[in-house]
Amino acid sequence: EATRDIQEELKQARVSLNKASGLKDIIAVAPAMKQLVRDTQIYHDNPSAPVLIEGESGVGKELVARAIHERSDRKDAPFVAINCGAMPENLLESELFGYEKGAFTGADALKIGKFEYAKGGTIFLDEIGDLKFSLQIKLLRVLQEKTIVRVGGLESIPVGSARVITATNKNLLDEMKNGRFRTDLYYRLQLFTMRIPPLRERKDDIPELVTHFIRKANKEMGLAIKGIEKDAMRLLRNHQW
Q: What is the three-class DSSP state of 87?
C-alpha cells in the first residue's frame, strides 16, 4: 500500500511539473523542492527583478535559472550563462562587456559582450562570489545605470532589458563580513533569493531521480532497464550526498 502511495505521488509530481513550462527537468517530490517550484511563480510575476540562487556545487543552480527564464515572458529571448570563477579577470571583463576594435593587442574586431547579447532576455552569472572586487564595482554600475561600456570604449550602451540571475556556492554574508564582497552589490542582486537544498536534505527525490536517469540512459543508449534493486535504492537513500 505504501509503495502504491509513493508511486502515485511520483506520478502526480511528474504531471504537475510537465504542465509548468520550463520546470519539466526539475525533480520535485520533497517538500523543499515543491516550495522552490512554487517560488518560481513569484519570479514569473516580477520578470525584471534580479534573483540570487544559493546552493552547493552540483545542486542544479543553472537548471533552476533556466527554468525561471523559460517560465517568463523572456523565454524566446537569449539565456546567456557565464561562470565568473572560471576565467581570469581581464578575460571575464571582455566576456561580460565586450570590447572595441583595437582596445588591446589581439582585439582585431569589435566584440559584443554577454550583457549586450542578453538584451531582452536573461544573463546568468554563476559563482558570483568569485567575482573580483574591481569587477564587482563595474557590475554594480551596470545594475544601477542599466548601461555598459565596452573595454576600450567610451559610449554607454543600454542593457537595462536584460534580467540578471546570479548563483553562488558561497555564503555571501560571510564574504561581506570578510571584505570580499560589496554590501551594496549584494543588496542589488538579492531582491529575490532562493536556496536549492542538497540531495541529502531531499532524499524523497532520490527514487524519481533514479527513474529520470534510467529513462535518459535507456533513450541515449538504446537500453530497456526497468529499475534498480531494493538494496541499491536503500544505499542511495542512506548515502550522505
A: coil
